[in-house]
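Reopening: DNA-binding protein still failing for me.
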Amino acid sequence: MILVDTNILFDIATLDPHWAEWSFGELQDARMIGRLLINDVIYAELAARYNHIRDLENFIETVGVEMEAIPREALFLAGKVFTRYRKAGGTRTGVLSDFFIGAHAAVLNLSLLTRDEGRYRTYFPTVTLITPSLS
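Support: Ran it again with your exact input. Result attached.
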């Protein structure tokens, strides 16, 4: 099973001129490996792009990803790792969602398809990342 980060789905939804082809190709390759998952946080981030829930639901169905709830163990881990990030001098706001996503992948031993490897590699070193630099 592979967790698909929001940026990959945004690339496809917006037909990003730089990333859409790579993201779509990697999504297709990932589908050959196993189920493609998103979680509540990714769903909420995607919702920012859509005016109606039915449009978001249609997109999710079209790209073939399934919802998977974030386990409590991952929610706890996300909070702990975010605290470590802040204590280490991390000041950017709006990054907590990355910690939820990374913790979800870590706790369930999921690979993560993403273009953002920095924080994931630093704070979730056990997660197998599928990133542009690795493909």
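Residues 74 and 107 are 6 Å apart (CA to CA). If you still see a failure, please send the error message rather than a screenshot.
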